[in-house]
Design goal:
Helix content: 40-55%
Distance between the termini: 67 Å
Number of strands: 2
Strand content: 5-15%
Strand order of the largest sheet: 1-2
Structural class: mainly alpha
Number of helices: 3
Shape: flat
Radius of gyration: 22 Å
Largest sheet: 2 strands, antiparallel
Length: 92
């Protein structure tokens, strides 16, 4: 097998790189987690929709927080106020 990288995977006679296989695995995992979230949400019929969305957002923030590199976050003073209060170019 000359010319193939050691990370290449042969599947059904086709050559795939490690990134491709990782992407397929991540897509399958996301489909599984979506199905679990949909099944849980379906059982929560008594809760208002906005509360279900709030719970899902909080869980998502807590799950993804360990992967954030806070040393690379831009901490320019006033940056968030510009996003919130900046009106942008006016047409009038």
């Amino acid at each position: 097998m000359s010319g193939q990288s050691p990370e290449a995977v042969v599947f059904w006679g086709c050559l795939f790189g490690a990134d491709y296989v990782l992407g397929v695995c991540l897509a399958l995992a996301s489909a599984l987690f979506y199905a679990v979230a949909a099944a849980i949400t379906k059982r929560l019929k008594d809760l208002p929709a906005h509360l279900i969305v709030l719970i899902q957002m909080v869980v998502g923030v807590l799950v993804l927080a360990p992967f954030v590199d806070f040393s690379r976050v831009d901490t320019a003073e006033g940056a968030w106020t510009l996003i919130i209060f900046d009106q942008g170019p006016s047409l009038f």
